[in-house]
């Protein structure tokens, strides 16, 4: 279940968070995640300690890094990466999104965590499945992997042009009935549902997937939205994170 924490101003998945695993999907109230000071402030003002903060340079790719600390500093940036996986304790993995889908992964049995960012580009290239594959390569098991799909633009607001529609249809023809809808003559895509279906296809159990019910564009009190705010003054991105002790 996805729950809101009034004090921290984040959403989190009860499938993932426990005494040793801590993750969350930040809201607008935490501030623009593209500004490092907002992330640092979130952890310090809530007395949340960690050893290292990892920030990937997101480029809408399907590049995944298996993170191992290389330097002593408590901040490490990774270039050209949209997915990060680690086994190291005390490491906070982060991504920022506004409409794109942030997805958090954990395999508690094998002590692995991961996070990824996927908009339409990452989704059409099955980023979520590449994440599962990589977690298995480093010792994870599809039976024990749990996943939380964070807040993204809903099917209600995500209309796509013909070109993109055909691109998705070609790749995911079997899911057409579920992921596409016609609204006011326009084709809409359900990105979060697509990622959910791709996880099932990859062998992740239904009961091990938490699925976010809201739309970033509709809910302007809690979320930033690229489509709604474009690059205007209101525009920002939410940060999401996971760490383990
Ligand atoms: Zn909407």
UniProtKB/TrEMBL annotation:
It catalyses: adenosine + phosphate = alpha-D-ribose 1-phosphate + adenine; inosine + phosphate = alpha-D-ribose 1-phosphate + hypoxanthine; S-methyl-5'-thioadenosine + phosphate = 5-(methylsulfanyl)-alpha-D-ribose 1-phosphate + adenine; adenosine + H2O + H(+) = inosine + NH4(+). Keywords: Hydrolase, Metal-binding, Transferase, Zinc. NCBIfam families: peptidoglycan editing factor PgeF. The keyword Coiled coil does not apply. Pfam families: Cu-oxidase_4 (PF02578). CDD domains: YfiH (cd16833). One of its GO terms (molecular function) is copper ion binding. The lineage of its organism: Bacteria, Candidatus Roizmaniibacteriota. Belongs to the purine nucleoside phosphorylase YfiH/LACC1 family. InterPro entries: Cu_polyphenol_OxRdtase (IPR003730), Cu_polyphenol_OxRdtase_sf (IPR038371), Cytotoxic_necrot_fac-like_cat (IPR011324). This is Purine nucleoside phosphorylase.
């Amino acid at each position: 279940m996805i729950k809101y924490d009034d004090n921290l101003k984040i959403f989190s998945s009860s499938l993932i968070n426990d005494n040793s695993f801590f993750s969350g999907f930040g809201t607008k109230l935490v501030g623009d995640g593209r500004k490092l000071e907002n992330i640092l402030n979130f952890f310090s003002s809530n007395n949340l300690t960690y050893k290292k903060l990892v920030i990937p340079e997101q480029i809408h790719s399907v590049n995944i890094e298996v993170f191992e600390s290389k330097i002593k500093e408590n901040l490490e940036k990774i270039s050209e990466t949209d997915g990060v996986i680690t086994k190291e304790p005390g490491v906070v993995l982060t991504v920022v999104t506004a409409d794109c889908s942030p997805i958090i992964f954990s395999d508690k049995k094998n002590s692995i965590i991961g996070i990824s960012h996927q908009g339409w580009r990452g989704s059409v290239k099955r980023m979520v499945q590449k994440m599962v594959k990589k977690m298995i390569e480093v010792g994870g098991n599809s039976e024990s992997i749990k996943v939380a799909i964070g807040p993204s633009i809903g099917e209600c607001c995500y209309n796509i042009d013909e070109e993109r529609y055909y691109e998705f249809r070609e790749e995911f023809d079997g899911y057409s009935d579920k992921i596409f809808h016609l609204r006011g003559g326009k084709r809409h895509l359900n990105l979060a549902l697509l990622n959910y279906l791709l996880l099932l296809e990859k062998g992740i159990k239904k009961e091990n997937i938490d699925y976010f019910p809201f739309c970033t564009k509709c809910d302007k009190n809690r979320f930033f939205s690229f489509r709604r705010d474009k690059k205007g003054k209101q525009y920002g991105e939410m940060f999401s994170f996971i760490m383990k002790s």
